[in-house]
Structures are given as structure tokens and as C-alpha cells.
Amino acid sequence: MIARIVSVTIIVCALLTTGQGRAVGQALSGKPSVRNVILLVSDDHRYDFLGFMAQSPSFLETPNLDRMAREGAHCVNAFVATSLCSPSRASILSGLYMYHHQVVDNQRPVPPGTVFFPQILQQAGFQTAFIGKWHMGHDDDSPQPGFDYWASFRGQGEYFDPILNINGNRRQIKGYNTDVLTDLAIDWLKRGRDPSKPFFLYVGFKAVHYPFTPAPRHQGRYHGKRIDYPETMANTEQNYRSQPKWVRERRFSIHGIDHMETGQFDKDPVPNFDELYWNYCETVFSLDEDIGRILDAVAAQGLDQNTVIIYMSDNGFALGEHGFYDKRDAFEVSIRVPLLVYAPGLIRPGTKIEAMVQNIDIAPTVLELCGVALPATKPFDGRSFLPLLLGQQVPWRDHILYEYYWEWNFPATPTMFAIRTDRYKYVYYHGVWDYDSFHDLQTDPHERYNLIDVPAYQELIQKLKQQLFDELESSGALMMPIRPPAGERLDQRKLE
Question: How far apart are CA 313 and CA 43, in angstroms?
Fold first, then answer.
């Protein structure tokens, strides 16, 4: 693994120092490039909680995200490679699966020598800025390589009056976190950047992370609205007869830990599910409002015709499905995310991309958008989906891989590896005496029935399992990058 990181570093350095990269703004052969890219990354925003989607709550309003989809592209089947904040964000920035970038949980910092794509853009002449949630190295808010401007907070941050490290100096800024980050982003667009240079701006929102907290002006906006409860929420024999034991035991817990405090597996720790649900929707609405402010600021600066704006979430989130209030697992609501790309004049309005794309595809896509050539030996697990955005027919993947490593401080979800095709999903659970999972997403989109023991599927299950482990083994994934938290020795680690 160390050898892979070193090789990636050498490849990127060679690319940047030998003149193989293209000049800023110069398009790759036959493909358009853009001058600027803005990447907006939210937290825990489900793929289906978008106002324009049929599955969305009927009362939820997301007019600005709806606009991005209406006037740009909506990646209908977008997934993360790991449904957890830090590993997902590392995959977005590196283009690598978790077993390659080694940010395996929310406590570990980025391993030395890791190259994130903003470093490549910066060396190619782009001005770069990072604003918001970094969360790789839980308590580290210090400026990171690859960014000319830096404004971030420690860990998850606070919803109100956040303390931000701005270019090495900490100060508290009064206000609602999403508003504060949006204000900083707009100010940088107006006064902080060099207009003579192309730019890359990354805004990492805290919202809509638990505990779901909308802006005060939106508190109560949806309270009292009718909620359609998930089909798998009820604790019935039909829902849980075939599910693995860990699924039945994790139900009704926030992040899988509340049941350890109560000692009960069948008591819902959420005092009022309806209020939790309404607060989530109001937090999404607050987020959408600030995304609209960024869209308007880009237009006001005359940047809308040469700037691509990408919106996505770092993972999904269960709101009662299977009794869960969390992510981490390989169920659809956990691994699927919203992914919108807004680029007037470049992308045909109303474009829908049905192909399966992942967060590991963001890095190569942004580089290709910016006309910055990829290294000859591609140091990415993902690939650019720019051709799909442009409506081109190109060969594409027919499955995705998913991975999650057990965290000692969140023990309710086991280590798992999954392979998902356009119809089927096989999930292997490592280190537990339990059933694996197999679902037919066409006949059972809510993943209610685990078909792992059905005789008619045994040949297909074995084929997918073999394919999963063949790909994991060939890429080094079976050498799990498990290591103690920063600053600790394994023999000193305490679980309390």
C-alpha cells in the first residue's frame, strides 16, 4: 500500500515537472475544458430527498437543486465507495477506494504522501480554495496541501457560531454554519480570488449531519406535514425474517450506539421520529437556500458560462429504513447519493445519466473538465464521466464495489464488502457468524427480502462472490489498512 502511494506521488510529480500537463484552459483532444469548477459537498443528504424526484417527500422543497437538475445533469445512479464521512471525502479528493487512500474512519488523518487532485490543479496554474468540513484527522483543522485559501473547522464542527481556522488563524464567526460557509465562499468569489486565474473552489457543508438542525428561520417549516413511513421500518416478521442478525440488532439506534446505552434492541431511542424527520427536511431546505445563493453569486460575477458547479453528498442516510438512523451499511439509502452537474452552455439541460458513477470518479472528471491531462499511468480507481455528461456513448462499468471497515467505537456495523450490478447486490460480512446478503433490486427495491439461501440464486450468488473477491484481491483490498488512531499505540487503546 505504501508503495502504491509513493508510486502515485512519483507519477504526479513527474507529470507536473516534465511538462506533460496541458496549459491551463487548453482542452484535451476533441473535449471541452472549462475555466473554473466549484464542488459542493454536503453531509448525510439522501439521494431521494430532492424536490424534483418522485420518491421525495411531497412537501420537501429544493428549488435550487431542482434548477441544477433541470438546467444541467442529474446522475440518477450515483454511489459512494464507503458510506462514512472521512473515507468518502478522501475518495472524492483522491479518486481512490478506501483501501488505497487508507483514511479508514473518522479519526485517522491523511497518510503522508497522499496526492489529492486539487494539488494537481494548483500546480497546473489553478487558484484553489477550501471552505468548510475537512474531517480527515478528527481534530485537525490546519491548512492542507493543494489549497491557496483555507477555512475549516475541527471535526464535525458546530451548527452555530463555528470556530474556523482561516489560513492558519482561528476565529469564531457568529451565525448558522451553512450560512457562514456560504458567506465565506461568496466573499472569496468576489474579493479573494485572482480574476486572472482559473479557480477550483471546494465547499464542504456540515449540513445535513445529525443532529439535524435547520437555520432558525426555517425551524418548524414542515412540522405537521404528513410522513410516509418506510416500508421496512416496522418490526415485523416479514421485514426481518431473512435479514442478518446484525441488522435486527442494530435497528432503532443513532449511529448504531444508542442500544448499547439502553441495553435494549427493540426500544427506539428517538423520542419523536416525526420531529427528527421534519428537522431533516428543514435542514435540507436550509442547505438548498444557500446553494441558491452560490449559484446567484456565480451568475452575478459573470462566471456562469465558464464555471461547472458539481453538487453531491458524502453518503446517504437511513431515516427509519430497517429501523436504522445511520449510514455505513450497504443498503441503497446508505450508499446512494445525489449528484448534480450544472454547466450552462456545456451540458444539455435536463440530462439524465443512468450509468452507475461513484465518488471515486470525481477527481478524474474534474481534471478532464479543466483540461489538465491525467498521468499516463492513471493513479485513480475511478474514471472520468465527462463523456456521459456530454451525451456520448462510451463503454462503462456494469457494477460497483463497496467497502466498510468495522470501527471499534461504532461496533454495531460489521466489516463488509459488496458488489452491486444494475439489478443485484451481494454483500459479504467479515468476522461475524451471520448470514451474508443478496438482494434482487428489481423485484425488491426496498431490500426487504434477503435471498441468500434461495436455491434458484445460488449460481449467481457464487458468481458475484467470486467476482467480488477476485477484484478485491487483484487490487490489494484484502490487505486491510487497519491502524490505531493518530498518536496511539495498539496496546494503549482503550474502548471506554
Answer: 5
Q: Under 8 Å CB-to-CB from 418, ≥6 apart: which residues?
A: 330, 335, 401, 402, 403, 425, 426, 427, 428, 468
CB 241 within 8 A of CB 232: no
Is 213 within 8 Å of 50 (Cβ atoms)?
no
pTM, rounded to two decimals? 0.89
Among candidates 314, 405, 315, which has minimal Cα distance to 104?
Answer: 405
Closest Cα to residue 131, out of 62, 68, 88, 179? Answer: 179
- Top pLDDT among 245 and 158 is at 158
Q: Are strands 149-153 and 36-42 parallel, antiparallel or unpaired?
A: unpaired
Residue count of the chain, please give it.
496
Residue 26 CA neighbour count, 13 Å, CB half: 10
Residue 335 has pLDDT above 90, yes or no: yes
The answer to whether 149 and 192 have CB atoms below 8 angstroms apart is yes
Contact 81, 360 (CB under 8 A): yes
Q: Where is 13: in which H helix or E strand?
A: helix 2-17
Q: How many CB atoms lie within 10 A of CB 158?
A: 14
pLDDT tens per residue, range 150-166: 999 999 999 999 999 99
The per-residue pLDDT for range 286-323, each reduced to its tens digit, is 999 999 999 999 999 999 999 999 999 999 999 989 88
* Strand 127-133 to 199-204 pairing: parallel
The C-alpha cell at 396 is 462503462
Sheet holding 437-440, edge to edge: 399-404, 415-421, 424-430, 437-440
pLDDT digits (tens, 9 = 90+) for 254-293: 655 444 344 343 444 555 889 999 999 999 999 999 999 9
- Interhelix angle 85-94/362-369, rounded to 10 degrees, is 30
**d(C-alpha 283, C-alpha 418), whole Å:** 31
Who contacts 72 (Cβ-Cβ below 8 Å, separation ≥6)? 309, 340, 341, 342, 343, 344, 347, 349, 351
